[in-house]
Amino acid sequence: MNNSVTNTARLLGAGLRALLVLTVVCGVLYPLAVTGVAQALFHSKANGSEITSDGKVVGSSLIGQQGYGLDYFQPRPANGLGENSVNTQYKLILSGATNRSGDNAELIAWVKEAKAKVVKDNSTGDYKVRPSQVPADAVTSSGSGLDPDISPAYADLQVHRVAERNGLPVDRVRKLVDQHTEGRTLGFMGEPRVNVLELNTALKDLTKG
């Protein structure tokens, strides 16, 4: 009986010591080490890839934003976004896709309407957009509805309108787009892209200067 109690106490003691050690190592030391390395080597990404303007955080380069006026470059459509109807204490936007097939009548109508709007909005007095110039990302949502990037073709399509509305030379705005165009990741993955929030932040700085 005494041996059984002693063995049980020994096992409990060993278990508690293991719990204490693992709690310190896995719950304190490891998170601190990972956080320290992330802050030292990947400071911007570790803090959410924040973008600042006038000393204030205006968003993240990883999440697309809607609601820009026509003085700015427009992002991809976000038809799949929804509103939170469960916990109405918080005003949330739910990401998501439209879940429409390529031959869905409603999707086709959305695309046609979006293309007509892109043509109309981006045509200026001395530059007319042709429907054939409108790229796919200008009229279709991404899978999440939160794509922060547009194609260089869509950015270039908007250059004349942005230049006219801001009183800037077309070549200067096109140069701004080129400066914010990223190539394929590692040279072969994905497609060239332009981050809309970064581009619009730079445009705002340019118009102030």
From TrEMBL:
Its main location: membrane. This is Potassium-transporting ATPase KdpC subunit. The lineage of its organism: Bacteria, Bacillati, Actinomycetota, Actinomycetes, Kitasatosporales. It comes from the Bacteria. The system is composed of three essential subunits: KdpA, KdpB and KdpC. Part of the high-affinity ATP-driven potassium transport (or Kdp) system, which catalyzes the hydrolysis of ATP coupled with the electrogenic transport of potassium into the cytoplasm. This subunit acts as a catalytic chaperone that increases the ATP-binding affinity of the ATP-hydrolyzing subunit KdpB by the formation of a transient KdpB/KdpC/ATP ternary complex. Signal peptide: none annotated. It is found in: Cell membrane. Belongs to the KdpC family. It is a single-pass membrane protein. Keywords: ATP-binding, Cell membrane, Ion transport, Membrane, Nucleotide-binding, Potassium, Potassium transport, Transmembrane, Transmembrane helix, Transport. It comes from Streptomyces tauricus. Pfam families: KdpC (PF02669).
